[in-house]
What we know:
Blueprint: H1 3-19, H2 24-28, H3 38-58, H4 72-79, H5 86-106, H6 109-112, H7 121-124, H8 137-158
Helix pairs in contact: 1-5, 1-8, 3-4, 3-5, 3-8
Amino acid sequence: xxxxxxxxxxxxxxxxxxxxxxxxxxxxxxxxxxxxxxxxxxxxxxxxxxxxxxxxxxxxxxxxxxxxxxxxxxxxxxxxxxxxxxxxxxxxxxxxxxxxxxxxxxxxxxxxxxxxxxxxxxxxxxxxxxxxxxxxxxxxxxxxxxxxxxxxxxxxxxx
Length: 159
């Protein structure tokens, strides 16, 4: 297991315990009309895991690091996470991400660190990277983990 896989695994194990202390009613509460509930935030992280799994697999075999984006608000709404069972969402989030731990741990170091100038990280990443800077798959995975931590912190602040 490489450092990225180890870090993601640690985040999952720590966060799962905290997520399970939140009850169904707490998880559905919206901090305000225009903000996501904990269920919707976790649903967004599930959507992120699905989209990034495709990126992490395809990124190993492409000469560029240009990937499709997605409309996060439409995905959350279409999947109706607000009305899903909280424990189901926790399990789905955990399962998807444990597969990502396996995937990330299998990516050769030279593939993770391969530099390319042709990327769209200025459009698809949480911490955008300028088009003028070289990108790696490692950057994208680190960004994914940082994005997850950010949203988990939001959930824990709400509850």
